[in-house]
Amino acid sequence: MVLDTIDPDPPAPDAATILIHTANDWLSQDPDPETQAELRLLVRAAGDGDGAAIRELHTRFDERLAFGTAGLRGVIAAGSNRMNRVLVSQAAAGLAAYLRGAASPGSTPSVVIGYDGRKNSHVFATDTAAILAGAGVRAILLPRLLPTPVLAFAVRHLDASAGVMVTASHNPANDNGYKVYLGGADNGSQIVSPDDARIAAEILRVATEQRVPDLPRAAYETAPESVVQAYIDATADLAHRPRAQVNTVYTALHGVGWDTTRRVLEAAGFDLPTLVDAQIAPDGHFPTVVFPNPEEPGALDLSYETAREAGAELIIANDPDADRLAIAIPDPSSDTGYRRLSGNEVGAILGWRAAELATNAAGDGGANGTLACSIVSSPALQAVAAAYGLKFADTLTGFKWVSRAPDLIFGYEEALGYLVNPGTVRDKDGISAAVAMLSLVSDLKADGLTLADHLDRFSARFGHFASGQISVRVTDLTEIERVMTRLRQSPPSAVGSIRVDRVDDLSAGSNGLPPSDVLRIRLVDGSRVMVRPSGTEPKLKVYLDTSSTDGTVAERKAAAEAALAELDQGMRELIS
């Protein structure tokens, strides 16, 4: 008789077997038929030894989509390193655990949830609301798809403990995201450290210890329309009755901005703009643009076409969730007939407006308050603050930092984000900024001036500030790391023909700023270059700033633009 023997040391499963097991475990938790079907095909192919399928599974499961100060953002697909219902459910349960732990004894935390018109935004929002409610948190879903600024407003208006906005802002069509705001002492600002790490730890605990089908769900509330109306009323109040009507064109870039913007403009007494019809209704496929970002080349082409037909004096564009604003003005020297103003130009003009309003409100007592912008934005705002005796704060990139500047009366970042009403919204708001800009242009028109004239007046009073940006999109993030390492280890002695004064590495923090992966290059002529990886896209971003206060406006422009061209060419050579 021969007895079977048991191998005391069976061979360990190979990496592919472990990977397929991980994918199957994820599959068993996924409530989404689309991502289920997609993952089943990959698992089946990987099980048959398909190398491409195995590599794809590795990209989806070797890492987890990081939850940070921008919340979550990524491509919609199955896997822990993608945006999907499993990941969102775990995030909701983790957020609930964090809020319950932070709540005072006997109190029930509350969360208001908003969503835009992107793919899966509504289902991610309702999953979040049901899981928060099931975890004992008061969950309040906004009544329909709405702009991000309405959600940011609602956190404060409803005195909620937190807010969640399901959006990927201006990312490509198949992306989505999950932004978290905190109420209370945070005044409805986006999360920052250490709260992001604490929430992330709770999300990871949920992912490790609980299964999505077992997470309790419960009924949630739907916010009344009065919340939206309160935002509309507060935003319309930013402008006085128009002294002159402005012939304007508006595009929503297939996003959710128009309905709310329309109601605000009507309440404020402005004539409604001519619409870019093909881009006005929410459409998560973004059929007329490659990237639904008004900064991207070609994004405003239909706006220019519409504006030429209408003889428009102003173009207003929101990004898909309407937290950003782009402005374009007539320019006979342009092939399109119009020129989009840079974020720094708009920020400087709106900052000047805010300083004037603060000064007029203060009377003889002198204006108080702070103008703030991110460290990669133009130094122009600091010049405005100095001229008006206001405080100035520069912050790390991102409105989570700009919105927290003490005594803030206006803040902006060069990526088309502006905060003109910090008393009601503590995030960038493309609708309120549009109202402020339209009110300014209306006043200028009543006085026989254009916005182009006003930009020249700015240069005459504060100096001419020229800004540029180099944006390098990569497929391999290690390329960005290599460039940053090279610039740190071998700092340039000159950029083009302009000598470098010093290079500041902000990775350890600087002047009270938290650590950040940013290099600041100061040049002997007063110019400045900032280099950093993008926080939301696979890009290396380089920001160039020059200025001149000598001579006429035309001479100032020429000097600043010449220096800018030199910096642009020099930096492209350094990062190539």
From TrEMBL:
<keyword id="KW-0413">Isomerase</keyword>
<dbReference type="GO" id="GO:0005975">
    <property type="term" value="P:carbohydrate metabolic process"/>
</dbReference>
<keyword id="KW-0479">Metal-binding</keyword>
<keyword id="KW-0460">Magnesium</keyword>
<dbReference type="GO" id="GO:0000287">
    <property type="term" value="F:magnesium ion binding"/>
</dbReference>
<dbReference type="InterPro" id="IPR005845">
    <property type="entry name" value="A-D-PHexomutase_a/b/a-II"/>
</dbReference>
<dbReference type="InterPro" id="IPR036900">
    <property type="entry name" value="A-D-PHexomutase_C_sf"/>
</dbReference>
<dbReference type="Pfam" id="PF02879">
    <property type="entry name" value="PGM_PMM_II"/>
</dbReference>
<comment type="similarity">
    <text>Belongs to the phosphohexose mutase family.</text>
</comment>
<feature type="domain" description="Alpha-D-phosphohexomutase alpha/beta/alpha">
    <location>
        <begin position="65"/>
        <end position="205"/>
    </location>
</feature>
<dbReference type="InterPro" id="IPR016055">
    <property type="entry name" value="A-D-PHexomutase_a/b/a-I/II/III"/>
</dbReference>
<dbReference type="InterPro" id="IPR005846">
    <property type="entry name" value="A-D-PHexomutase_a/b/a-III"/>
</dbReference>
<dbReference type="InterPro" id="IPR005843">
    <property type="entry name" value="A-D-PHexomutase_C"/>
</dbReference>
<dbReference type="GO" id="GO:0008973">
    <property type="term" value="F:phosphopentomutase activity"/>
</dbReference>
<keyword id="KW-0597">Phosphoprotein</keyword>
<dbReference type="Pfam" id="PF00408">
    <property type="entry name" value="PGM_PMM_IV"/>
</dbReference>
<dbReference type="Pfam" id="PF02878">
    <property type="entry name" value="PGM_PMM_I"/>
</dbReference>
<protein>
    <submittedName>
        <fullName>Phospho-sugar mutase</fullName>
    </submittedName>
</protein>
<dbReference type="GO" id="GO:0006166">
    <property type="term" value="P:purine ribonucleoside salvage"/>
</dbReference>
<dbReference type="InterPro" id="IPR005844">
    <property type="entry name" value="A-D-PHexomutase_a/b/a-I"/>
</dbReference>
<dbReference type="InterPro" id="IPR016066">
    <property type="entry name" value="A-D-PHexomutase_CS"/>
</dbReference>
<feature type="domain" description="Alpha-D-phosphohexomutase alpha/beta/alpha">
    <location>
        <begin position="343"/>
        <end position="447"/>
    </location>
</feature>
<dbReference type="Pfam" id="PF02880">
    <property type="entry name" value="PGM_PMM_III"/>
</dbReference>
<feature type="domain" description="Alpha-D-phosphohexomutase alpha/beta/alpha">
    <location>
        <begin position="230"/>
        <end position="328"/>
    </location>
</feature>
<feature type="domain" description="Alpha-D-phosphohexomutase C-terminal">
    <location>
        <begin position="489"/>
        <end position="558"/>
    </location>
</feature>
